[in-house]
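Exercise 3.2. Students should predict the tertiary structure of the chain below and write it as structure tokens, then compare their answer with the key that follows.

Predict this chain's 3D structure.
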Amino acid sequence: PSGCQEGNAIEVRNFGTSPTSAVAITQNFISGYQKTGIVVNGNSDGKVSANTVDGIAPVGYIARNGIQIGFGATAQVKNNKVLNNSYTGTSTVSGGILVVGGPYYGSDYGKGSQVDGNTITGNDIGVFLSNLEADGSAPVVQTNIKVINNTISNGALNNHYGGSGYQAGISDVGNNDKLINNNISGAGYDPDSNTGAYTVGIDADPSFTNKAKIHANDIEP
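Answer key:
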């Protein structure tokens, strides 16, 4: 238990000029990891399906993530159960399913991934899309990520980002990402349940993301 940003249960990492790595990660039960349950990074194409990834409980020493698709990777993330990735500190947040990339991180964008049919419970951010230009703004190129048909819930505010807390069912910074037919519920994502914190079902304000397509989502307290 420390802030070391390593310790991943299953990791695919392929950087450089080598051919794209194709990998299927299916039907695993993963818990007790230091940083991330499943990582697919770099020049990789993943099929991540039917896994259970459990961060076990909120912790104050590291911001765990359940599944990360990062830094140029593309994946189909389908029919997984992702639970209990929550950080109680003030400096950052945890993500259930994280898609991350762009010049801000010194990497390629994460484009074209699909997050479909997952059950995502008790995470600070259920699905966290973070593709950033060098200055931290949304990308001008299309990232075209689909977040569809997921069930996302959180019953409480555990995160204390900025001293007050930030939690969202889906948080999107990208370009032309599609957030469709997701069911989002629980007091942890309800703006009326957490005075002083920022808790919301979908965080995709056009001031920080480009051309998000948001349709047919069911958001309940």
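Discussion points: The chain has no helices and 21 strands. The longest strand covers residues 166-173.
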